């Protein structure tokens, strides 16, 4: 009897394609946006009235979905999300929105057609690191995702309420995926909600890691060439998209009401 020869199996993660209809794509984006708020609550990123995440509408690119003001991240559902245009008009929803959030996100969405989603909260480690006025160093494999791909917005000039300040922020961000707002916190962007959300979680973790490392001693940064190479391996938006998927599965199983 001849021994059966099995060929090794190969598997790979497959990124989703845009939904065939505007309605389906809009629902997908809103569901991931609601899930992001629930996840951010779990990570402790909520802070009073502060914090906002947006996603561009698939039918009207000059409009974006945002969380209502003064609703806790842990309670946000798909049906709570509000649609805003670049003039600040609330087109869907009956609650106020964070004015600073509108100024920041409208400027970014207008300046970066490639950006579908942007995330900003007053996370503890993000604020602590932002107070130092420095970019993150490539101390770990994970932090290399931001190597040469984040900027510093300096100086702090108060709550971002003026359109000019939003434009300056968007200009400082440039083509990068993240920005440290001096004395303020972190902000990340991406071509999907999933990527923008994951990069925020990952960047806050990188800030926490560097704070811990520097408190313990003098960390050794990864060499420039290796850091740049590692960034190409772990810093793609596709990687950010896939890194979000386990979190999506977990939060939807734990809190299915977010889909309402």
Describe the protein.
Helices cover 40% and strands 13% of the residues. The protein is of the alpha+beta class and 260 residues long. An 8-stranded mixed beta sheet has the order 4-3-2-1-5-8-7-6, with helices on both faces.
Q: Which structural class should the secondary elements be placed in?
A: alpha+beta
Oligomer state equals: single chain
Total E-strand runs: 8
Helix count, DSSP H or I runs of 4 or more residues: 7
DSSP strand content: 5-15%
Main beta-sheet annotation: 8 strands, mixed
The averaged pLDDT comes out at 94
Order of helices and strands: HEEEEHEHEHEEHHH
Strand order of the largest sheet: 4-3-2-1-5-8-7-6
* Inertia-based shape: globular
Residue ranges: pLDDT <50 for 5 or more in a row? none
Over the alpha carbons, how many angstroms does the gyration radius reach? 19 Å
The percentage helix is: 40-55%
Report how far the terminal alpha carbons are from each other: 59 Å
Compile the SSE list and pairings.
Blueprint: H1 22-42, E1 52-56, E2 63-66, E3 82-85, E4 90-92, H2 99-111, E5 117-121, H3 124-130, E6 150-153, H4 163-173, E7 178-181, E8 185-190, H5 193-216, H6 224-234, H7 237-254
Helix pairs in contact: 1-5, 1-7, 2-4, 3-5, 5-7
In short:
The chain is an alpha+beta fold. Helix content is 40%, strand content 13%. It has helices spanning 22-42, 99-111, 124-130, 163-173, 193-216, 224-234, 237-254; strands spanning 52-56, 63-66, 82-85, 90-92, 117-121, 150-153, 178-181, 185-190.
For the structure shown, list the relevant keywords.
260 residues, single chain, globular, 8-stranded mixed sheet, alpha+beta, 7 helices
């Amino acid at each position: 009897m001849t021994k059966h020869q099995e060929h090794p199996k190969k598997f790979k993660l497959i990124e989703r394609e845009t939904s065939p209809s505007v309605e389906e794509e809009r629902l997908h984006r809103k569901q991931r946006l609601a899930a992001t708020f629930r996840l951010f609550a779990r990570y402790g990123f909520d802070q009073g009235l502060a914090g906002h995440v947006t996603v561009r509408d698939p039918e009207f690119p000059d409009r974006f979905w945002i969380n209502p003001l003064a609703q806790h991240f842990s309670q946000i559902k798909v049906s709570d999300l509000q649609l805003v245009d670049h003039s600040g008009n609330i087109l869907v929803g009956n609650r106020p929105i964070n004015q600073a959030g509108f100024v920041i996100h409208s400027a970014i969405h207008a300046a970066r057609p490639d950006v579908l989603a942007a995330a900003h909260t007053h996370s503890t480690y993000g604020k602590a690191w932002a107070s130092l006025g420095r970019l993150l160093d490539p101390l770990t494999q994970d932090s290399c995702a931001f190597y040469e791909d984040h900027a510093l917005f300096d100086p702090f000039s108060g709550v971002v309420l003026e359109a000019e300040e939003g434009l300056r922020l968007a200009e400082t961000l440039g083509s990068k995926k993240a920005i440290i707002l001096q004395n303020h916190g972190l902000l990340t962007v991406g071509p999907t909600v999933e990527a923008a959300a994951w990069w925020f979680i990952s960047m806050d973790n990188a800030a926490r890691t560097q704070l811990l490392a520097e408190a313990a001693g003098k960390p050794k940064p990864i060499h420039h060439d290796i850091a740049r190479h590692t960034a190409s391996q772990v810093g793609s938006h596709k990687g950010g998209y896939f890194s979000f998927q386990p979190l999506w599965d977990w939060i939807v199983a734990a809190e299915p009401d977010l889909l309402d």
